Amino acid sequence: MASFLTVTSATDPRLADYTRLRDVNLRRSLEAEHGLFLAEGEKVIRRAIAAGHPVRSLLMASRWTAPLADVLDSVDAPVYVADDATLEGVTGFPVHRGALASLERLPLPPLAAVLRDARRVLVLEDLVDHANVGSIFRCAAALGVDAIVLSPRCADPLYRRAVKVSMGAVFAIPYARMTNWHDDLGELRAAGFTLLALTPDQAATPMDKAAMGDRAALLLGSEGDGLTSHWLDEADERVCIPMSPGAMSAGVDSLNVTAAAAIACHALLRR
Amino acid sequence: MASFLTVTSATDPRLADYTRLRDVNLRRSLEAEHGLFLAEGEKVIRRAIAAGHPVRSLLMASRWTAPLADVLDSVDAPVYVADDATLEGVTGFPVHRGALASLERLPLPPLAAVLRDARRVLVLEDLVDHANVGSIFRCAAALGVDAIVLSPRCADPLYRRAVKVSMGAVFAIPYARMTNWHDDLGELRAAGFTLLALTPDQAATPMDKAAMGDRAALLLGSEGDGLTSHWLDEADERVCIPMSPGAMSAGVDSLNVTAAAAIACHALLRR
């Protein structure tokens, strides 16, 4: 059972896990150093704990202790209770969802483990924006993608904003991180996956018409530049989402990566 | 030809159009009162001017006067040139895209005018988030939706963040605003549009299987609550995007409105 501790100072050292949530660089080093991540809001906290992440502590406004009572009963960690001004002083912005948890990361499974029983997977190459990563996880989970593979440099799905935008879907879908950007697509091919590279190039095969076979992996590139030429070349087929000819001539000629991912995942899962 | 004016004070009254861009409430009243809106970044400024919006003024770092030289030659408005610190002092945040334009709104066309030659339209009911509105415009334009109809309370596509997220697609697709939330869907039906109401309800017809006929309108609801029961009842058919049964049982049971809109628009345009 959790122990409740009232805190009244935003500089209380016991709240160090929650310091300055808007400072991306500070948070990256803090989270990496301690192997922690943050979950925000009742629903996401529940999902993170249900996924087996050990709880380091919780921090919340007193109004949240009752709705989370069953969770707090089940964990053995301090629960820091603070008023809204103290919360904002710690985090650097108003905490609308009123409850935060600091949790321990778990070792990611190896690539082979997440591929073993999967038929439809996404492979994300070097996405930079955490909100995009969270949005793609949410969409992939809802539509039924079996697993997600991240390139070595792809943004972290457990970074606070990714967790939040995913609505906790980062805990619902198995994922692994490649160790070798150059060679690891070979592991997917060896496992029998057809590799489909999504590109804005309208000369590619429309996603709806792509031959997928029993196992298929959809490769999605980074926000600015899309897939690298190496991954485009490694793919079995280049696929696209057909754009309106009128839009192309008006210069409105691309979808953002989350919209493209949503449409492509839907096509990937329809068959 | 534009006249160049160097400004060195963030409180210069000539820059009032650009004041405190992050203050949503201030901006809403300022923009409504003066019938103006802002475009950010070279590409979006070009699109806004090409769409016929008269220019009130421009504000930019000096490095942007050369890339925009042809535009500045063609407009008859003051061009305020400021250093980055002054720019940030005026707007309240670093202006990464380095160039802003204040433009005049144009009267929106009546509903009948945007429907006249359209076969595939979106109807947005009471969306609140400007980024979502911008994202949906971008996606709709790229995929070839002919027109967008807004409910009376739907968020403004010319609000700064909507314009920015749309990448200027708000200037590429005709749109109108309903005057009567209760009755104006009747005007679409009278014009021969099949009304399809998008809902997360998995008992609805999968979007891919919906009967559309020659003219079809896809109704999208607000972020939190979806479509109102009145609009659901007015529709000819309720349509859904099939979710994974496993995801449903894991509680990851919905798409955000932009992902849902992307998938539904793609299905709307495929036929």
Automatic annotation (TrEMBL), chains A, B:
Pfam families, sorted: SpoU_methylase
Organism expressing this protein natively: Actinomadura verrucosospora
Positions of the RNA 2-O ribose methyltransferase substrate binding domain: 38-109
Record protein name field: tRNA/rRNA methyltransferase SpoU
Keyword 4Fe-4S among record annotations: no
Family: Belongs to the class IV-like SAM-binding methyltransferase superfamily. RNA methyltransferase TrmH family.
GO molecular function: RNA binding; RNA methyltransferase activity
SMART domains: SpoU_sub_bind (SM00967)
Highest taxon listed in the record's lineage: Bacteria
GO CC, alphabetical: cytoplasm
